[in-house]
Specification:
The structure holds three protein chains of three kinds. By secondary structure, chain A is mostly helical. Chain A has helices spanning 2-21, 23-26, 35-58, 66-82, 87-109, 114-133, 137-140, 176-199, 201-211, 213-218, 224-248, 259-272, 279-292, 299-305, 311-321, 329-343, 348-363; strands spanning 146-147, 168-169, 172-173, 251-252. By secondary structure, chain C is mainly alpha-helical. Chain C is globular and about 70 Å long. The chains are: A mainly alpha, B alpha/beta, C mainly alpha. The interface between A and C is large, with 46 and 43 residues.
């Protein structure tokens, strides 16, 4: 019983690893293969995977998860400022600080459930955001965001050269593609941990809490420690993601902690498919793609795109489609949210499942192991 | 198939090696002249027939309208650079190297992006322009936080950043960068320009109460106004910080009523300014008497687009602005004409600064004879020009800040049209708003990155 | 000289303030708090009604508030359709001296109608918001009653974005001034009225807003308390299944409940327009806050939402006083959330929440 599942898991990991590492190749046709967007995919992928461990498994909807992202970023930048430009301490410290904040906030918030829990997490995040933006400016550099300066001590590094130093992994600069591959390795690691958690007895207990917490409690089972562990793991994932944001781009701003940022990861997870392993990553891909590519289209690019049509038709098409790109990219995203929920309850993963089912029905083949089992979550 | 590809790749590479060697040989005599260092830099256009500029403006969020106006100005600038349209300020600019045939003979193209008025989003968008689209220069923005964030990024990546609307001192002070340039004015200049006018209009004996947006720009603005009004003998009763996006400011306005102050300074911009001003007027502050004088409201940084949102409440209120379409110098007229004919309404100050910045960058490339950033930077540093709407202007080499006249404006009591909101009270000469370069600190950093 | 002395004497710090000025300051902050509270309560009322009866997490509720405000903007735009006389002095673009046709046709009466646009749009907003509410419920929300909350969030959030982007494409992103009628745009000297000295002034429109909020809240309560319809809805909030079993057409009533929620949110928006010039994003700005209010009040409790609205409004006002901020810097930035945390930790279901509603 367990052996095929494990073998299946290794297959999933292998496919996932190859897919992530070759992303610069297969994302090229849709214009998403430049370093910054690839890094964002990986970083928010980690964030969403972590969020999914909490929300997907336990059903506890945190509406303030971005606070850990912000804390991770600030910690990492401080590590660059005070210690060294090497990314290893930054990543470790960022993840740990995310965890510390998660212990504090989680311990308090988990005393409530349902929407009361959501609002508690939201409240903590909004307090952190508002303070970071204003009175905590000595630590966070407020609106401008925390940046590196020439005068930073960097006690572990030698004397600074001319100009600002870059983040490095033992000499390898962490911008561009090398930055992406560093994030990609972290993503693969995070995915593996998440897979192990989903499969573990711990994961099963979390799912049991989701399906019926009261019954669990009546059987004398104390759910709180399990929930707290899930919350902290998920906070550490967010801290890791935050520190990676600083690794690829050493700047940390308060708006990373705003409710809109917390809301974004909620939307990503639901859009892709809550409780599935791959779903949140798809959600990340879709939202980040729209944010970066659709917002950059303008009438000139649209004209180029429709240039194969007769002029009058091209003009009509440009007039219509320009409402949905550039400054209208929010509209496209809103419409997309609605369409996905209306037609694909369960998110994009549901759509994929339906499609594979349809294909299988058509070909009338015996079901194989192709369908990723973790999608059941 | 893959074998095929490999061989063709190899042969292509081989060809490139040969041709590179040939080109190197051909260019040897020029090695000690200009152009030698054109060797390599990020997004070098090489022999391409066109160059790309990146227009990074807020397209969503509170400043979306300002961003849209900036984008209009950029498109117009590209047109004029490429020799299309009526040429706009290219006809009035002095000290000009541009020829109206693109830049260095290359056609100018552009890409756009959305900053969302968030540092992260703005940097992401700028990175996309640099990494994916291969732009030579990034410009735009409608707030100082974003400008400073993108400026820092551009320094790291070796791409020139021509700031859009950013008013905080830090942009060319504490956070100045070798690769960043600002044409817009700053809070220090606002204070220096506004102070004497306030003294003339309201007298020496005034007590001011500040409401300040609780972030870097707000503090910077509060500091400058305090500094210059206190020099004139004003007293500062209190300076209260208000959260960004507070919406309802009533709890901050009521304490002003009986505070003993007779001037309210609103260090707010954008929606905050619209709301706080509207509400302050509702609380009767404009009709009030205090200390035997008429109570006054001052909004140090005015923008016509935002003033529209405050409606009739801005009538008679003093502030400063970088530029206004009603100016009658040749440069302003040329710009308003081509913008007005293209879009049917006058440009905003944000549009003006963005248009000018694009032209200045292009002109610097033309002067330097190359797109190589360190040379372009050197061409911009200390560059003096006129005919761009602000009188004689200089890009100060020490901090990359433009020095020029500053406009003190007043909300128009009797507007003749919906665009006629601000009335220019005084064009404060450059000498009065200039400050020593080392006053605001900061370090530009190296030319080569 | 005399003026200088006067100014000098009024200067010193808090200790020199008379008892009266302290009283004034406190009364004014209380009024500010009530006013804010009124706004919060009005927005939260509809949200909690939809929560409680339909079990739907409506992230598009802020958009309804925004649409209400834009009813006033639209009416203002219609009423001020103007005869345009080109300003010949400007040659580079077309600038017009605009005179509204209403003023040309009806003179002062026309001008007065334009002046009173906000109160007039209340009458307009009721049918419009009802129509929008009913359309939303029938077309979308209805199909999500049985769906998980997460999906309700996604679909209503998507709807909110779509609605606000549509408004943005028509009206732009800038705030649009929508002033109150001239006669009540200034301040009332309530100090004189109440015999508390001359220095106590407060804007008429805010006093009217407070009164209006009270009337609307009272009307909603009376409607739910004293009508058969209300009885069924209240019963539905307690136990939806049983009510359904009794053969009562719950669906139609749900539609009407949603319509009422839309009207209340819309009216809150119309009345708020003179205080906060409307822009397309104002709904989102209030969204998070209205959720906090509803949850602090307790899920499924209308009186709870109202009480929480006023409580948070008043505390926010007092926390913003300079004297308080001197002791606790930045307290005004976080007070709402801080209070929310304290209340939710001391009272598990908010102020008046019922057990088992939205707890899982």
């Amino acid at each position: 019983m367990t052996t095929p599942a494990i073998r299946n898991d290794w297959a999933v990991m292998a496919i996932f690893t190859v897919a992530v590492l070759t992303a610069p190749l297969w994302l090229a046709p849709i214009g998403a293969n430049y370093p910054d967007l690839l890094q964002k995919f990986a970083i928010f992928g980690i964030f969403a995977i972590g969020f999914n461990i909490l929300f997907g498994l336990t059903g506890y909807l945190s509406f303030g998860h971005a606070v850990f992202l912000g804390v991770g970023s600030y910690t990492a930048v401080w590590s660059f400022k005070l210690l060294t430009m090497n990314v290893i301490p930054a990543v470790i410290l960022g993840t740990v600080m995310g965890g510390v904040f998660a212990v504090l906030i989680g311990y308090v918030s988990l005393r409530r459930s349902g929407i009361y829990f959501s609002i508690l997490t939201l409240a903590f995040a909004q307090m952190s955001y508002n303070l970071a933006y204003s009175v905590l400016t000595p630590i966070t550099n407020g609106e401008t965001g925390l940046q590196l300066t020439q005068q930073d001590p960097r006690i572990l590094d030698g004397p600074a050269g001319e100009g600002l130093p870059s983040t490095t992994l033992f000499g390898l600069e962490m911008s561009g593609y090398s930055g992406f591959y560093f994030c990609a390795v972290m993503l693969i690691l995070a995915f593996y941990i998440s897979l192990r958690i989903f499969r573990s007895p711990f994961g099963l207990k979390l799912q049991a809490i989701k399906s019926n917490q009261t019954r669990m409690k009546y059987t004398g089972f104390n759910t709180k420690p399990y929930l707290l562990v899930a919350f902290v793991i998920s906070g550490m994932f967010a801290g890791l993601a935050g520190s990676l944001m600083a690794v690829t781009d050493p700047l940390a701003g308060a708006e990373r902690m705003q409710w809109t940022a917390s809301g974004e990861v909620v939307l990503m997870t639901i859009l892709g498919g809550t409780g599935t392993l791959i779903g949140p990553l798809l959600g990340v891909g879709i939202i980040k793609y729209f944010e970066n590519i659709f917002s950059a289209l303008n009438e000139a690019t649209l004209h180029a795109f429709f240039s194969f049509m007769p002029d009058w038709l091209a003009n009509v098409m440009v007039a219509i489609s320009s409402q949905f790109v550039g400054e209208g990219w929010h509209l496209t995203l809103g419409v997309l949210f609605m369409l996905v929920v209306i037609f694909l309850p369960g998110g994009v993963m549901e759509g994929i499942r339906r499609m594979t089912a349809a294909v299988r029905n058509l070909s009338k083949q015996k079901p194989t192991e192709l369908e990723p089992k973790e999608a059941e979550g | 198939m893959s074998e095929d590809k490999k061989t063709s790749e190899l042969s292509r590479r081989g060809f490139m090696k040969v041709s590179a060697a040939a080109m190197a040989a051909a260019s040897t005599p020029m090695f000690f002249t200009k152009g030698a260092w054109a060797a390599d830099f990020r997004n070098n256009p090489g022999n391409a027939g066109s160059v790309k500029l990146g227009f990074n403006v807020p397209q969503t969020g509170a400043y979306a309208d300002e961003g849209a106006d900036e984008l209009r100005a950029y498109k117009l600038a590209v047109k004029h650079l490429n020799g299309e349209g009526d040429g706009g300020m290219l006809n009035t600019m002095t000290n000009k190297a541009l020829k109206g045939n693109g830049v260095l003979g290359k056609k100018v193209e552009y890409v756009t992006g959305d900053t969302q008025t968030k540092s992260d989003a703005a940097r992401s968008s700028a990175k996309r322009m640099i990494e994916k689209d291969g732009v030579l220069m990034v410009t735009g923005g409608s707030s100082s936080g974003v400008a400073i964030a993108v400026q820092g990024l551009c320094q790291e990546m070796g791409i020139i950043f021509m700031a859009g609307l950013t008013h905080s001192n830090d942009t060319t002070g504490k956070d100045k960068r070798r690769y960043g340039f600002r044409h817009f004015f700053n809070t220090e200049m606002s204070g220096a320009a506004l102070g004497p006018v306030l003294e003339k209009e309201f007298g020496k004996d005034r007590v001011a109460y500040h409401l300040t947006a609780d972030y870097t720009w707000g503090w910077s603005q509060e500091g400058s106004i305090k500094k210059y009004t206190e020099q004139l003998g004003w007293q500062t009763k209190a300076a209260v910080r208000t959260p960004l996006g507070a919406g309802d400011f009533s709890q901050y306005i009521t304490p002003v009523l009986n505070s003993g102050a007779d001037v309210l300074v609103l260090n707010h911009y954008g929606k905050d300014m619209v709301n706080s001003l509207t509400q302050a007027v509702q609380f009767g502050l404009r009709d009030k008497q205090a200390n035997g004088k008429d109570f006054q409201i001052v909004v140090p940084l005015f923008s016509r687009l935002m003033a529209q949102g405050a409606g009739a409440n801005i009538k008679g209120i003093y502030g400063t602005t970088n530029w206004n379409w009603s100016l009658t110098d040749e440069g302003s007229k040329a710009f308003v004409k081509s913008f007005g004919q293209e879009y049917g309404f006058p440009p905003s100050q944000a549009a003006h600064t963005c248009y000018v910045q694009t032209l200045l960058y292009a002109n610097a490339c033309e002067m330097a004879g190359t797109f190589y950033p360190p040379e372009v930077i050197k061409a911009l540093e200390g560059f003096k020009f006129d005919g761009m709407g602000n009188g004689p202007t200089e890009y100060r080499a020490e901090d990359h800040q433009c020095f020029k006249d500053v406009l003190v404006v007043r909300g128009n009591e009797n507007p003749t049209s919906k665009f006629d909101l601000l009335q220019v009270v005084q064009e404060v000469p450059r000498a009065q708003v200039e400050y020593p370069a080392d006053m605001l600190g900061g370090d530009l950093g190296p030319y080569k990155v | 000289m005399a003026a200088g002395q006067l100014a000098g004497r009024q200067f010193p710090s808090i200790s020199h303030l008379t008892v009266w000025t302290v009283m004034d300051a406190l009364i004014l902050q209380l009024l500010n708090g009530l006013d804010k509270g009124g706004a919060y309560a009005l927005i939260a009322l509809g949200l909690t009604l939809v929560f409680g009866t339909l079990g739907v997490v409506n992230f598009a509720h802020g958009a309804l508030f925004m649409l209400g405000a834009f009813c006033a903007v639209t009416l203002q735009n219609v009423l001020t359709i103007s005869k345009k006389v080109k300003d010949e002095s400007i040659t580079f673009f077309d600038a017009y001296k605009e005179t509204p046709y209403l003023e040309i046709w009806w003179g002062d009466t026309g001008a007065a109608i334009i002046d009173w646009v906000v109160p007039i749009s209340i009458i307009l907003a009721i049918p419009i918001m009802l129509a929008i509410g009913v359309a939303m419920e029938r077309g979308l929300i209805r199909h999500f009653y049985k769906r998980p909350h997460a999906e309700q969030i996604l679909v209503t959030f998507g709807l909110a974005i779509v609605l606000q982007e549509i408004i943005k494409s028509f009206f732009g992103a800038n705030p649009i001034p929508t002033p109150a009628p001239d006669i009540i745009s200034g301040s009332a000297n309530i100090g004189m009225m109440l015999g508390l000295g001359e220095s106590l002034v407060y804007p008429w429109w805010r006093l009217i807003y407070l009164l209006f909020a009270g009337v609307v809240i009272f009307a909603v309560f009376a409607f739910l308390q004293f009508t058969t319809f209300g009885m069924v809805v209240r019963a539905g909030m307690q136990d939806r299944e049983t009510v359904g079993l009794l053969g009562i057409n719950v669906e139609r009533r749900f539609t009407i409940v949603f319509g009422i929620a839309a009207i209340v949110a819309g009216l809150a928006g119309v009345m708020y327009a003179p205080i906060l010039p409307p822009d397309y994003h104002m709904g989102m700005d209030f969204l998070v806050l209205s959720f906090v209010v509803v949850v602090v009040g307790g899920m499924g409790s209308l009186p709870g939402a109202v009480a929480a609205g006023f409580l948070l409004g008043i505390l926010q006002s007092f926390a913003s006083m300079t004297e308080v901020k001197a002791i606790l810097p930045g307290i005004d930035q976080i007070i709402i959330y801080l209070v929310a945390v304290v209340i939710l930790l001391t009272r598990p279901r908010g102020l008046m929440g019922r057990k088992g509603v939205m707890e899982d």
